[in-house]
Amino acid sequence: MQTIFVQFKCHPGQAYDVADVVVRTLEETSEIYSTSGHYDLLAKFYLPAEVDIGHFVTNQLQTIDGVKDTFTLVTFKAFS
Hints:
By secondary structure, the chain is α+β, with helices and mostly antiparallel strands. It has a single domain (2-74), classed as 2-Layer Sandwich (Alpha-Beta Plaits). The protein contains 2 helices and 4 strands, in the order E-H-E-E-H-E. It has helices at 15-25, 53-61, and strands at 2-10, 29-34, 41-47, 67-74. It has a 4-stranded antiparallel β-sheet with strand order 2-3-1-4, with helices on one face. It starts with a strand and ends in a 6-residue tail after the last strand.
């Protein structure tokens, strides 16, 4: 399992619509938050090991209506 965090920059007024689409249509979604700053949303995704992260981001996330830009963080180890 791969864990990635993706920040979304949305077109004005579209952040809640984008969050709704992500939650409803992508089973890989763990959590999504609205944020302040340079990006509007922060989402956590769990991807199967065989899934190509680049294809997931460019084909599944960047194509959502209202998404202007994304920033992806790939994680290595979770500490608890």
